[in-house]
Structure formats: C-alpha cells, structure tokens
Amino acid sequence: MALFQEKQYVGFATLPNQVHRKSVKKGFDFTLMVAGESGMGKSTLVNSLFLTDLYKDRKLLNAEERINQTVEIIKHTVDIEEKGVKLKLTIVDTPGFGDAVNNNECWKPITDYIDQQFEQYFRDESGLNRKNIQDNRVHCCLYFIPPFGHGLRPVDVEFMKALHEKVNIIPLIAKADCLTPNEIKKLKDRIREEIDKFGIKVYQFPECDSDEDEEFKQLDKELKECTPFAVIGSNTVVEARGQRVRGRLYPWGIVEVENQSHCDFVKLRNMLIRSHMHDLKDVTCDVHYENYRAQCIQEMTRCVCVSRKDENKYKHKYKYKQ
Ligand code: GDP
C-alpha cells in the first residue's frame, strides 16, 4: 500500500533539459525586416543591436538615383554565437522604401516578399522532404517613423495597414536624440492615438502570467507603456563617465545608446532578443502564416469545386452530343 502512496521519481522531469539540449544543438534562426525611408538610421541600429557590421558593402545612392527608385529587398545573413548558442540572423532590408518622388504603393514589393516566403514555406511543408525546411518567413518588422513630424504620415499608415496582417510590426521613433523628452512623450502619445484611430494592428506583447514575480510584471508594464520605442543608434564608441560606450558625440555632450534615460534602445534590444524573440516567431507561425495557409487552402478548394462543376458541365454536354 505504502508503495502506491509514495511519489516515485520516474524521470520525465528531465524533459525540459532534453528539449533544451536538442534546440541548442539545432541552433536558432530569426528573420528581422527593417523598413523606413533611407537615412533614418536603420543600418546603424541593426549594427548596434547585434554588434556586427552587416552593411560592409552597401552602396549609397545619390538624390538623382533615388528619384525614380523602386523598392529593393536585400537580405544579409550572419551566424552569431554566444555561450555556445548559435543564432542564424537574417536582416531583410528594404532600401528605396519612401524615397521616390511618387511613393504610391511603395509597400507592394515588401508585401509580395513576405507572401513569397509564406508560399515557399507552404510548398516545402506540403512536399516530401519536410524535415529540412529552410524557414525564411519574416518574424518581425521594425518600422522607422521619422522624428520630425507630428505623428504618422500617410505613407506610414498605408505601409502598416498593408503589412499588419502578414508580419509583427514594431514601430520605432528613429533618431530620438533629435527630440527633447517632452517632445518624445507627445509624439509617442500621438502615434499611439493614430495607431488606434486607423485600426493598425501592431505587435501586441503577450499578457504576463499571473504567477510571474513582481519585478517581471513591472518590467512587462514598462515595456508595454514605452511603445513606440524611441531609439538612437551609433556605430562609434565614445568615452563617457570614464567608460567606453556606444554613443554619439555632440559639441554639447554625449548621447549614449544604452543609457535608458537617453532612449529606449535597451528596452527594444531586451524585448527583441532576450524576452520576446520566441513569441515573435510563434505569432508569425500561429497567426500570420496560419492566415495565409487558410486562405491558400480555401482558394485551392474553391478551384477544385469550380473545376468539378466544369467537369459536370462538360459531361452533360458530352452526353447531350452523344
Ligand atoms: P539607413 O539609410 O536608414 O540605413 O540610415 P543609416 O544607418 O545609414 O544612417 C544615416 C545617417 O544617420 C548616418 O549619418 C548615421 O550616422 C546617422 N544616424 C544613425 N542613427 C542615428 C541616430 O540615432 N541619431 C542621429 N542623430 N543620427 C543617426
């Protein structure tokens, strides 16, 4: 009797370790898209986020070349490793977006690219070799809003509305060092209001579990309150308070990228890399890709029904002729 009452150790408590070992061995991948007009600091921010130089061979266009420029999609991939954990990071850059004189539908090549990646995944998933699918779906899009306006511009609204059902959009206020703290607050409030007003669905942080500790809940609250993140990027290291830090040196002082009282860079980096990378991938897979997949299947079923109808029509004609 005692034998049944005693809790015996079976060993399935090691399951998380087994999953951990397997995932570390396999490595991780993450695809991040950056969009916003040129000169908004996209490449500088990406370099600051991942501490790599992803844009070594970039060719900068002059104004004349940008007048009629069409949006290009350029992929940069790097393998980074930290404490034995490998991450294959793909940055999808969208040079040319919002740069031309006529920016009508300039988001189209970007939505097409996202759809193509879904289509490729759908094909691979329906094929024979499903084990080694290369997942190129875009997990997150950082959208750079200029700091100079009074809120969203029409092109920002159009872009986000065109993409919000396909990808997790995280809006950012670029070059936040151009604004005072008060101006940043006003601009953030305005952007949040306009996002609501235009029914734009940006990435929603998941609800915090009730059993999380107080510190975690506080961080989560701060994170939610600080969107859209006001960011600063820099490719240079400067000396501030006796320390070498990534920052921007001005005649009146130094702006530190990683100083939380200067901008939201650290919050963005923590969210993107340390706390929400997995959720961004899950939402891509479970929401955006599922929507695409459901539409595809619906379309395919409709095609089959239509061709069956045609077949019946044809059979009928055939009988009639006989
Ligand atoms: P991209 O065309 O959007 O990739 O922009 P870049 O990263 O090439 O940056 C364009 C210019 O803006 C460069 O001179 C950068 O040094 C500068 N820049 C980048 N980030 C910031 C920022 O946060 N604040 C300010 N003031 N300038 C920045």
TL;DR?
The chain is of the alpha/beta class and 322 residues long. Helices cover 45% and strands 17% of the residues. The chain binds guanosine-5'-diphosphate.
Descriptive notes:
This protein has 322 residues and is of the alpha/beta class. It has helices at residues 2-5, 15-26, 42-50, 63-67, 108-126, 154-163, 181-197, 214-225, 265-275, 277-321, and strands at 28-35, 74-82, 85-93, 140-145, 169-173, 229-230, 237-240, 243-250, 253-256. Strands 2-3-1-4-5-6 form a six-stranded mixed beta sheet, with helices on both faces. It has a three-stranded antiparallel beta sheet with strand order 7-8-9, with no helix packed on it. Helix 9 packs across helix 10 (277-321). The chain is globular. The termini are far apart. The chain binds guanosine-5'-diphosphate (GDP). Guanosine-5'-diphosphate binds at residues 38-44, 175, 177-178, 232-233.
